[in-house]
Amino acid sequence: MAENETQADSRERLLDEAEMLFAQKGFEGVSVREITRAAHCNLAAVNYYFGNKENLYLEVFRNRWMPRARRIQESFRQSLKGEGHQSLNHIIQCLALAFLKGPLSEAERKCHHQLMAREMAQPTAALEMLAEQIMRPFFRELTDMIRPLIPEGIQEEELMLSAMGIFAMILYFGFGRVAVTRLLGCEYDDALRKRLSSYIADFSIGGLQRLNGEIHHGG
Amino acid sequence: MAENETQADSRERLLDEAEMLFAQKGFEGVSVREITRAAHCNLAAVNYYFGNKENLYLEVFRNRWMPRARRIQESFRQSLKGEGHQSLNHIIQCLALAFLKGPLSEAERKCHHQLMAREMAQPTAALEMLAEQIMRPFFRELTDMIRPLIPEGIQEEELMLSAMGIFAMILYFGFGRVAVTRLLGCEYDDALRKRLSSYIADFSIGGLQRLNGEIHHGG
DNA sequence: GTCTATAGCAGGATAGAC
DNA sequence: GTCTATCCTGCTATAGAC
């Protein structure tokens, strides 16, 4: 495989650099020139490997974003197993921590969240793909996990909204960090992340309780 | 003033069209040519009135976005006065409704939220201005309003986070509507907005309760 | 698979007539 | 205040040598 090293590397480097640049500046804000320069390969490489710029963008989501999303989900599942019982509190804190801290480096997480934020603000074909292959299955998994922990009377829509509301806070505190730190007036470090996670968990549990009387939760 | 009509109109039309286009496609995604074409004025008009494209973007926030944000806030305050007592439930529902429905047309609100979403994803000098002149004062007003309705023991940071968490849901359900409708599988109409508002209020109140024991709330 | 060269076009900005 | 004409730069995409 050594003789193919440079081939594979160019394609991978393009994906790496493209993802970071798309995250920082958006699709329109980055030029193919800038990407190829950052990836230390020729201008023509994008067209050679991906056909055009748009397709490179999609491949970034397919080959980088989605696998990383799966890693985050997997880290969430693993951290759940840590404790024997699965209380609502435990689930939501694990969820928040997986997304705010998780298995990613600081730079990787920032990149990941920014791409998502951009797609939320201006959906492209990429969001369609994410909704289908990542978001919807994970929401299903999450609501299935929560359902036995709350009273039977709760509406499915309320449950779905709750999951989304929890996510709203996680995403907001995750990628709206500029606004968060500016308003709180403090650094966005691990200590803050921990406080945010436990805050989100507490807040969410209260919300879930309120929706339909008392619930049974451990922790 | 009749003889100045066309002068004033061009500038105003530019701001109107620029805002819509920036909201739809982002700063980089729109050309000055496109804006001037939409505003039915000459290509050179942007440079004449605003110096350059970037400054037009800032003026959109100063002359369109910020006044509208103040109108939303004002409509929130007005709707609060409707009832004699100000319960937490009432406050939060009014807040959510002001942002999800409020005094704006459907198109105006969508435009407003999208610009905000873009600034959150990729902050520019505009966000600095909004944080200082709109967000921070309003958050202060809001926390001052909520503080007397909850126990004294609560931390100021928790209170701030609560206000932000409530906003997170409102903004998420407001401008993440594509994701919302896709996941819920229903239309984003007035009925859904009403359900979302009352859901957000219930959820938030539960969250606030949970943070520090029981609270006194009406409604 | 990599690179140079370039076609072909669209972008922001401005000068200067009216 | 409005408009035309134009400069110059940068873009995507491709053809074709190596």
Query: pLDDT under 50 segments of chain A (min length 5)?
Result: 1-5, 214-219
Main pleated sheet of chain A: none
Strand-and-helix sequence of chain A, N→C?
HHHHHHHHHH
- Look at the structure and name the CATH superfamily of chain A: Tetracycline Repressor, domain 2
Tally of individual helices of chain A: 10
The quaternary structure here is homodimer
The overall pLDDT average of chain A reads 87
CATH architecture of chain A: Orthogonal Bundle
| Strand residue percentage of chain A | under 5%
> What is the number of E strands of chain A?
0
Distance between the termini of chain A: 51 Å
Question: What value does the Rg of chain A take, in angstroms?
Answer: 20 Å
Of all protein chain pairs, which has the greatest interface, and how many residues does each chain bring to it? Answer: A-B, 52 and 51 residues
Write the layout of secondary structure elements.
Two copies of one chain form a homodimer.
Chain A lengths: L4 H21 L6 H7 L6 H6 L2 H30 L5 H13 L5 H16 L3 H22 L9 H20 L1 H8 L5 H22 L8
Helix pairs in contact in A: 1-2, 1-4, 1-6, 4-5, 4-7, 5-8, 5-10, 7-8, 8-10
Chain A binds a DNA duplex (18 and 18 nucleotides) through helix 1 and helix 3.
Q: What tags apply to this protein structure?
A:
homodimer, mainly alpha, Tetracycline Repressor, domain 2, 0% strand, disordered C terminus, DNA-binding
